[in-house]
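Data card: per-record layout.
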Amino acid sequence: MHSLRTWNFPIKDQKLVVSLLNEWYSGNTLNSLLHLWENNEKVPCQKQKEYIKILCYNVEGWGTRALEAVDLVYKTQASICIFTEVGELWNMSRLPHFNTFYQKGTNKNGGVCIAVGKHLKATRVEVNIPNTVVVDITGLSEPVRIIGIYWPASQQRDLDDILSYVIEGTILSGDFNATVKEWNSPDLDVIEYLPGTQSVDRHKLDNTMKTHSHWHNYFT
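The structure for this 220-residue chain is written out next.
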């Protein structure tokens, strides 16, 4: 007991060790001691709900901003990360303890990555769409599908292209560079209008003209 106090064991651990030692020395046989421990009252484990954190970040070049991105991941304690505009140097510095899924962009500044913590099981869904990554994640209370997108304004894409990949439990996240009717945006964007703006967190690229939407999270 003196050694436990000397080593600064917590009081709770000290009491537990003393209790086990008393039972050990007072037992007549190993079998009787084993029987005592096996029949000890079992306390049911209480499940605690923990919210998973998802980070979406427009890196604008992983080669020069990797350290900034990694620092942001650990500050937010995110388990799933979507990085857009990662560029061609996305593999220069890997995110520790994460599995990374990358899709090449249509230009040197494009590309998107989804990074998933290794405590979760992630499986890539093959898609034939540039700047788009689809990953199925298990190990949660319910399976989740993450669709990470970076669509440059010059990219000839329609949001209908991804509809076949949207299932129950899907999270769309990324930079769409799309116009929004509610902002009276001119219908000039090749990606066309967003199909409604409810449940969408929008960050305006141009606060004056309100011509584009950086659409970061959409849940189904």
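Known properties of this structure: The chain has two domains: 2-38, 54-219. Residues 186 and 211 are 7 Å apart (CA to CA).

See the next section for split statistics.
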